[in-house]
Write a structure and sequence with these properties.
Radius of gyration: 22 Å
Strand content: under 5%
EC number: 2.4.1.-
Family: Belongs to the PIGV family.
GO biological process, one term: GPI anchor biosynthetic process
Shape: globular
Largest sheet: none
Structural class: mainly alpha
Membrane topology: Multi-pass membrane protein
Low-confidence stretches: none
Mean pLDDT: 90
Helix content: over 70%
Pathway: Glycolipid biosynthesis; glycosylphosphatidylinositol-anchor biosynthesis
């Protein structure tokens, strides 16, 4: 449930945010449809998804959104996990699509069509919810809650609607669902509702594996509480010990989806003995995740650092530069603060902004050295600091390049992704 709000001005801007989110999806969809018709597809793999059924109105309207990873996700939603390499995709999104399709199929008849339509509905519904969540989270980082603050939060949401990862928000990808759960978890952090935060971060972990990094927020809570409360008498010390115990449980909650999914994969591939078992089953601590990522997706330390990947590093460069600049600019400011202890006590910086920027910086390094580096554009689209940083640059008359980047990647994404050309 989204957090409740009060106030006429607040509600007015929130209605504007909802209208902005919905209208941006309509405009983006129309452009994607037109550009798909104007350019011939590079690949026709989408046709395999519905090869046993006639091309329908639903496929004609939304088939151009089913590209790259979307084919894997919808294949899982339609037929379950068949191949080992598809286990790189976590189950909550395809399971949600499958569940909604059971309702929609009663109205449109075709199973493939119901899967595709369900995925488009879910992705775009969660985008609207994410926009509302970003608005409320942004307002929560302000002190006065004035009309200027509401207007600033609205402008942040406008940037989200122009995100360089926009085409993935429109398509059957996990991005919008993951972003909503992430933003709600961060809202729980800033409101000091840690159990709520751990629940939403756990849901994020059922969508994508990198949500386990959110455990860092609860580790930060332990460190922060130790600095602020441990040396302030027995009563505060007892409260600190209790909060530490709670944080350990909250970390466990965040890890639960990852561990359950690994157990599910283990049961599928490692229960039967003999030649049919996968090599990772023989590991001391059997984990399918690293094995599948390395064998099928070429993920791993410096595995992507080759000459032929230079174009992908170029595609990743804008997000990489903004991420390094935004995270380190903030953290250096905090380090140079005259009273770091006061910053730790601060509701906004102490609870949320410092650990969030540490996470942003750390995740940037992880993507740079371990991931397919071009995926940073869509992976980081759920980090609110991106939009806060660009908004600040615009207010300082330094935002022309980031805005140009946002617009350029929207155009490129619409042209390339919808016609099955390589995109981030």
């Amino acid at each position: 449930m989204l957090p409740k709000t009060t106030g006429g001005e607040y509600a007015f801007y929130e209605r504007k945010v909802i209208w902005l989110a919905v209208s941006s999806r309509v405009v983006l969809y129309i452009l994607s449809f037109l550009l798909n018709d104007l350019v011939n597809d590079y690949d026709t793999s989408t046709e395999l998804f519905a090869q046993d059924e006639k091309t329908s109105v639903i496929m004609r309207l939304f088939g151009h959104l089913m590209r790259w990873d979307a084919i894997h996700l919808l294949g899982i939603a339609k037929e379950g996990y068949i191949y080992e390499h598809t286990h790189a995709f976590f189950p909550f999104y395809p399971l949600s699509v499958h569940s909604l399709s059971k309702l929609i199929i009663n109205f449109i008849g075709s199973y493939s069509d119901s899967i595709l339509l369900s995925s488009v509905i879910i992705s775009n519904l969660f985008f609207v919810l994410s926009t509302i969540a970003l608005y409320r989270l942004s307002v929560s980082t302000t002190e006065e809650k004035s009309e200027e603050d509401y207007d600033w939060a609205y402008r942040v949401c406008f940037l989200l609607c122009l995100s360089p990862a926009n085409i993935f928000f429109l398509s059957p990808y996990t991005e919008t669902m993951f972003m909503f759960f992430t933003l709600m978890g961060l809202y729980g952090i800033i409101k000091d509702r840690r159990w709520l935060a751990s629940l939403f971060f756990s849901l994020s972990g059922a969508v994508r594996s990198n949500a386990v990094l959110y455990c860092g927020f609860f580790v930060w809570n332990i460190l922060r509480d130790s600095l602020l409360h441990f040396h302030q008498g027995d009563q505060k010390r007892k409260r600190y010990i209790l909060r530490c115990f709670e944080s350990i449980l909250q970390v466990s909650i965040v890890f639960v989806p990852f561990l359950l999914y690994q157990f599910f994969v283990y049961q599928r591939f490692c229960q039967s003995e003999g030649e049919g078992t996968s090599p990772w089953c023989q590991q001391t601590v059997p984990s399918s995740y690293s094995y599948i990522q390395e064998k099928y997706w070429n993920q791993g330390f410096l595995r992507y650092w080759t000459i032929k990947q230079i174009p992908n590093f170029a595609l990743a460069a804008p997000m990489m530069i903004v991420s390094f600049y935004g995270s380190f600019h903030f953290l250096i400011q905090m380090y140079q603060s005259h009273s770091l202890m006061e910053e730790l006590k601060d509701r906004v910086n102490g609870r949320l902004m410092i650990p969030l920027h540490v996470y942003w910086a750390a995740f940037t390094f992880i993507v740079l050295f371990f991931f397919h580096v071009q995926t940073i554009t869509r992976f980081f689209a759920s980090i609110p600091c991106l939009y806060w940083t660009v908004s600040r640059l615009i207010s300082e008359d330094k935002g022309s390049l980031p805005v140009f980047w946002f617009l350029l990647y929207n155009i490129l994404g619409l042209c390339l992704y919808t016609n099955f050309y390589p995109w981030t």
